[in-house]
Amino acid sequence: MAEHRTSSFFFNFNRRFDLIDARITGWMARWGLPLLRISLGIVYLWFGVLKFFPGLSPAADLATGTIERLTFGLIPAGSALLLLAVWETLIGLGLIFGLWMRVTLLLLFLQMVGTITPVFFFPQEVFNVLPYAPTLEGQYIIKNLVIISAAIVLGATVRGGVIVADPQALSGRKTKEGR
Predict the structure, then answer these.
(1) How far, in Å, CA of 164 to CA of 169, rounded?
(2) What is the pLDDT of residue 179?
(3) Which of 85, 88, 95, 174 is the Cys-Cys partner for 51 at CB 3.0 to 4.6 Å?
């Protein structure tokens, strides 16, 4: 009798857990992409707006030095910072409002190329001990791996891609987890 109550308890617990898990997973599937897009947009808007005010962005010197080097000195530091401020602000607004996502993501990926190049151009400013101990600027660059990954996920949706909470419901087949 006790064995029956125990198995019944676990059956009910598993069923309740599965229902709660399905609701949470459904919420994540519904809101994950918009929240990712908007939060990434806020980061870009924030960092972009900071660059409009000299001395406020901790990455300004490294960014302007990189742009000067990438353009062989054709774009001076002051203009480079203004250009970058506008660029990042546009990316931020595009992401927040979900506007022109293909163009917004293209601008983001092009900007990411620029943010990674200091690792090669200015390793002494990016690492205290190469390649193990990044400076604050180096950490700022390394975190861009997360931004690139987030942009790839968002890019997968520009042709209507979505996150599906229950792939079994779509295909009628069991997944590896559901066997």
Answers:
(1) 9
(2) 45
(3) 85
